[in-house]
Design a protein that fits this description.
Its EC number is 2.7.1.23. Belongs to the NAD kinase family. This protein is α+β, with helices and mostly antiparallel strands. Helix content is about 20%, strand content about 30%. The chain is globular. About 40% of the residues are buried.
């Protein structure tokens, strides 16, 4: 297994599978990628159902195999695409590709670098393939949005060669470790009812260890709890480190990483957080309260979401827009910061890439410029 590391004077986590994963960041500006050994195995993720990406995919694979002598891994459904199998000129390259199937083949221990061709959804999918340590990710903007994909494909040979040489800037995008626990009521007392005492919520505790864990995931963007098809308001209780914080009445709740703060959370009115800020964003969806605003809590706390005892209907939960399932009374969702971030390779640097994405993709602070005054006298006349 070829390993990389990120240089910034961090203390290494002994349990981490990749030595590039560290406990804390001392100097974000010094986050750099270097290789202990030259990379060998490259995973190429291509946005499916987009014929416009077939040609870039072939060009990249040919470059990696023929010019860089890399072992290239791709999904079997991508390699078996009809447009590739009919291309005789690409046949020799296609025969050298290593294929895998999501959910069947584990490639987490044999990949040195991930290259994504597509939009933000492609990077989210690549992240989901690695439920533990994640190799560095280089994302090319070939999709519809491209907030997380800073590289342009026109110069892919130069950009990929630079990454292979090392010393690239890295953004460590934190993920959420999420557990869905079923049937808590069978082994634990139900949470206390939500009542106010002198304007304050009670510090109720609940046993978060009870029940059976039915799903555990690493999430890059957000966990969304909503009311699903029901016409009733969603009514869920939010706990922080075992203490009852509030009850959410509305369309639902978004728990997001800083990376996810510019996605669904931003549309719901949350602030946008730079991915280097160690935090978790909690954003209500259409809350039935004028005073419920999004909040930011420290990374590392454990959030727990359960249906309120008096909730009229079940809730639904999804993880980065996938694996949607129903949550009933007695179930809970436990969320905390994962120790396995996604090391995203920057095109320029941590600050410039993020603000350029805000400007180009979200048109942040774009407005028509105010006309300049002809001379100083015009200004004084206006003020008088």
């Amino acid at each position: 297994m070829n390993l990389c590391r990120f240089l910034s004077g961090w203390r290494r986590r002994p349990a981490a599978r990749h030595p590039g994963l560290w406990e804390h960041i001392q100097d974000p500006a010094s986050q750099r990628l270097t290789w202990n050994k030259p990379p060998v195995n490259v995973l190429v993720i291509r946005k499916v159902r987009d014929e416009s990406l077939v040609e870039p995919f072939k060009q990249l694979c040919s470059f990696l195999v023929e010019e860089k002598q890399m072992m290239v891994y791709v999904e079997r459904r991508v390699a078996d695409d009809a447009s590739l199998s009919k291309d005789e000129a690409f046949g020799s390259i296609r025969n050298q590709l290593c294929t895998f199937r999501e959910g069947y083949d584990d490639i987490s221990d044999c990949i040195d670098l991930i290259i994504c061709l597509g939009g933000d959804g492609t990077l989210l999918y690549a992240s989901s393939l690695f439920q533990g340590s994640v190799p560095p990710v280089m994302a090319f903007h070939l999709g519809s949005l491209g907030f997380l994909t800073p590289f342009k494909f026109e110069s892919y040979k130069i950009e990929v060669a630079k990454v292979f040489e090392g010393n690239a800037a890295i953004t460590l995008r934190s993920r959420l470790k999420v557990k869905v626990v079923k049937d808590m009521l069978q082994t634990a007392e139900p949470p206390p009812p939500l009542q106010e005492h002198n304007g304050l919520l009670p510090h109720g505790h609940t046993n978060s260890e009870a029940g059976k864990v039915t799903l555990q995931l690493q999430v890059l963007n957000e966990v969304v709890v909503d009311r699903g098809p029901s016409s009733y308001l969603s009514n869920v209780d939010l706990y922080l480190d075992g203490r009852l914080i509030t009850s959410v009445q509305g369309d639902g709740l978004i728990v997001s990483t800083p990376t996810g703060s510019t996605a669904y959370a931003a549309a719901a009115g949350a602030s946008m957080i730079h991915p280097n800020v160690p935090a978790i964003m909690v954003t209500p969806i259409c809350p039935h309260s004028l005073s419920f605003r999004p909040i930011v809590v420290p990374a590392g706390v454990e959030l727990m979401i359960t249906l309120s005892p008096d909730a009229r209907n079940a809730a639904w939960v999804s993880f980065d827009g996938r694996r949607r399932q129903e949550i009933r009374h007695g179930d809970c969702i436990k969320i905390t910061t994962s120790c396995y971030p996604v090391p995203s390779i920057c095109c320029h640097d941590l600050v410039y890439d993020w603000f350029e994405s805000l400007a180009q993709c979200l048109h942040w602070n774009v407005r028509k410029r105010q006309a300049r005054l002809a001379d100083i006298s015009d200004s004084s006349d206006t003020e008088s």
